[in-house]
Amino acid sequence: MARTRPARWGDHAPTTEDEARERILLAAMRCYLRHGVARTTVEDIAREALIHRTTVYAYFRSRDEVLAGVVLLEARGLMAASDRIMSGDGRFEDRLVDAFLAARRAVAQSPFLSLLFDRDNAAQTVGAAYASGVIQQRTLPTLTGYIATAQENGELRDDVGAPAMARWLLRVQNMLMTDPPEDSDAVEATLRMFVVASIAPRPPHRSAT
């Protein structure tokens, strides 16, 4: 008896493009957990989603773009929590430190984010996310706005543009998320000593007498 091929997408095809993309991303997540990020191929993802590899490329241009999509899908809650902290009351430096620490906790508490940002996968994860522009598109404009407001209020140095400062702070956050677990008090002390100090307003220049 001839073997019948499984229907495309299994028994239930997606009804929208967004649903199709999410099903591919969920299939990729299962593959990452099973094989690891570096060893997962587009063929693995297609097989898991019950589709042909060309269907994956119809929604994502490359394997790295799939990985970037997974990062965004899994980090939506993290980014929403950071935005709530940054839009709250209090000094900018306190809100920034709280947002950084919340991101570290979210990674530590999520098995999948821990996998993406561990030492074996962090470089590929961050590289894919930045190459696709997904992180910048979702976080850079908002963070730039918070920084610009803080500069206007005299809370931050104003000799560095808000977009440049935002890009640097995002890189600091990514570095913190890939660091091994450490006492939160120690991380906070480091943030205040180096990061907060580096973006604080510059003291007035005193001319030589």
How would you explain this protein's 3D organization?
With 209 residues, the protein is an all-alpha fold. The chain has 2 domains: 17-61, Homeodomain-like (Arc Repressor Mutant, subunit A, Orthogonal Bundle); 65-199, Tetracycline Repressor, domain 2 (Orthogonal Bundle), CATH 1.10.357.10. Helix content is 69%, strand content 0%. The protein is built from 11 helices and no strands. The chain has helices at residues 17-35, 42-49, 53-59, 63-74, 76-86, 92-109, 111-116, 122-132, 134-152, 162-178, 184-199. Helix 1 (17-35) crosses helix 2 and helix 2 packs across helix 3 (53-59). The longest helix is centred in the first third of the chain and has 19 residues, at 17-35. 25% of the residues are buried.
Q: How many helical elements?
A: 11
Q: Summarize the amount of helix as a percent range.
A: 55-70%
What is the string of SSEs from the N terminus onward? Answer: HHHHHHHHHHH
Mean pLDDT: 88
Give Rg in angstroms.
21 Å
What is the name of the CATH architecture of the largest domain?
Orthogonal Bundle
The overall number of domains is 2
| CATH superfamily membership of the largest domain | Tetracycline Repressor, domain 2
Structural class: mainly alpha
Cα-to-Cα separation, first versus last residue? 98 Å
**Net shape:** elongated
* Low-pLDDT ranges: 1-7
Tell me the fraction of residues in β-strands, as a range. Answer: under 5%
The biggest sheet, with number of strands, parallel, antiparallel or mixed sense and barrel status, is: none
CATH class label of the largest domain: Mainly Alpha
Number of strands: 0
The CATH topology of the largest domain: Tetracycline Repressor, domain 2
Pfam family, one: TetR_N
GO molecular function: DNA-binding transcription factor activity; transcription cis-regulatory region binding
DNA-binding region: 41-60
Protein name: Transcriptional regulator, TetR family
